[in-house]
Write a structure and sequence with these properties.
homotetramer, 191 residues, Tetracycline Repressor, domain 2, 74% helix, elongated, DNA-binding, Homeodomain-like_sf (chains A, B, C, D), TetR/AcrR family transcriptional repressor of nem operon (chains A, B, C, D), HTH_TetR (chains A, B, C, D)
Chain lengths: 191, 191, 191, 191
DNA sequence: CATGAATGAGTTTTCATTCAT
DNA sequence: GATGAATGAAAACTCATTCAT
């Protein structure tokens, strides 16, 4: 892993935990054991690093969520189930405090900065459209009521997950996310 | 309105828009046209103001959402519909950027500070339990499938709303929240 | 006791403990349970209060040390002994931390402000000259070696007491002052 | 000299003159012609600097007073005389206003802060014990009355010097310190 | 590439003082 | 006389960024 990538990875962890604005360059320097010069060699500014972090994050999610889960050869129902499992698994007991890395940034940065906002928006759009595609597939396979609006339902599912993570973070209790996942599974016949 | 309340109200607006940490005392001073000394005459610290803001916010929501909507004499179905209407109305086109005042703070502060976290948690708990009570009432009146778990469903509803607001904020599009509300109405026979 | 005197007395205690500069008007207002308006009714400024405090202090010492001890009808030897006793008694175990009220101000303010400096200087001069007079009397009564220089010895005695209090304050141990007093008594045949 | 040491040295001078609390970071910044950032690059806080200043001060005194004078090969009488000379020389006419750097801090900080207090206390203890050792040596060499208590006398000598400096500072007159030194020399047969 | 010294604008906070009531 | 709201200068401290080495 290149030094630059190493810095991004470390910064991602800190930003996930403290938020972008509350994370100082020094926090990153200390955690990465590097000097100022090296940081500014790789990044032109804190903002530049922030963007790199979102890109790295979105790319990771793209790989794990979109490519490995949604674009796998599994059938739609299984894909949706895996997506829920993966989401739940991302928030283990110890990390339940941190919340969703993208969701946090969505809230912190959306009004603050267009570039951040759009990058995050694109990820959510991809996620929603993959969920919608899977739902459509389920409808086609007669596993789901054909009168539902798949796109809208996909938005609702992603909203529920993000809202569930928000509540989980606030209550410091992973149970609430599991509950939300259960409800989704029941409502969309994923069991 | 007392000067202190005036400062809180102004600060609430700014914090809703920029977040607690990104809001500087100077932002508030300028918006309220007061001097530093006056601010510290009413509040011992920025943190003290932050707490006052959350309390004010939670109290307002308690009045508007819990007391005026849930504890009104309307029947359960109507109450839930009103709650959804009220939520949607809170995010007009112009304010769609800001997101949920409590939700934003939940994400920004939950890991950072216990006092903030607990105050917000208590509000969410109240909200969820009122939704659960309304759902129970609907079940009793045979308006809803009796096999559903009302508490869990209430959590899912609140999660969906908060998640919907999060997506709306990120997409800068109020439509997504309206969509989520529709789905809730359909799923819980509120139409 | 007038309100003004009450404020002075309270301020004296706080200044003795924290020093003049480190004492804030608020400290005094809180301790005296009065408002800003009342304070500025009696004093034109913090400096004005400071001066009043030194004057009050010096006047008290003048009464207790100069008038009641040195200008009593006792014989010189007894007067000097009483002076030492009184000094020691002023620094009980609990107050050994505070040091000498005048000495502290002498160090804190002498370079800072001429008015303070001169007021304190006058007190020390009075003290020294009274000690000198007592020593002279002892010499005349053949209780002391006639070759000593009474004025210089008086300076040395006051220096020893003030230095002893300084060390006592720093060591937080009243013993050291008692030791110094003993030495003085032996050196000047006061036992 | 390193920049850090340079800042300490400059700060020592200012603190000697104004006291720790009355010295502002800006005072130091201006005197040293550096920016805030640089200051906080070397010190974590004003307190941190304060501690560094006391340590630097105590170390200097340790070198000049303890090592170079008391631990020299001279005989006891000469050592004590040198100590008095050195003390007097430290307070030239121009600097007579400032008083004793350690003594000032002893009075300003002893009640305020334990760490300062203890560092200063240790210096005074060292000084006292060296004086005591020298007196003991003089007693052994029959230059001094064997019935005196050397430790107590050492305390008295240091007290006299510190008290003399206090009076000198307050009277703005170096003469008084010279007088005190004379008295010490006579009392302990140092002439 | 890398270090960390240096800059300076901005942040939170304190506090003596004034002023309207 | 008395209250405490209001002012504003200055304090301690933070932090992104630049620059000499």
């Amino acid at each position: 892993m290149s030094k630059k990538q190493e810095i991004i990875t470390i910064a991602r962890g800190i930003i996930h935990s403290k938020g972008y604005q509350a994370t100082s360059i020094s926090d990153i320097l200390n955690a990465a054991s590097i000097g100022k010069g090296q940081f500014y060699h790789y990044f032109t500014s804190k903002y530049d690093l922030g963007l790199a972090v979102v890109e790295d994050l979105v790319q990771d999610l793209d790989q794990q969520l979109i490519k490995e889960i949604f674009q796998s050869k599994e059938e739609a129902k299984k894909r949706l189930n895996k997506m829920l499992d993966w989401n739940l698994a991302s928030h283990t007991e110890t990390k339940s405090k941190l919340g969703c890395a993208v969701g946090n940034l969505a809230i912190e940065m959306s009004e603050h900065d267009e570039t951040f906002r759009v990058k995050i928006k694109e990820f959510f759009n991809k996620w929603i459209s993959e969920v919608a595609a899977s739902l459509t597939e389920m409808v086609e396979e007669n596993q789901l009521d054909p009168t539902i609006n798949c796109t809208k339902s996909a938005q609702a599912i992603v909203a529920m997950i993000e809202g569930g993570i928000l509540l989980m973070k606030n209550q410091q209790d992973i149970e609430i996310l599991a509950t939300v996942m259960d409800i989704i599974r029941k409502q969309y016949h994923l069991i």
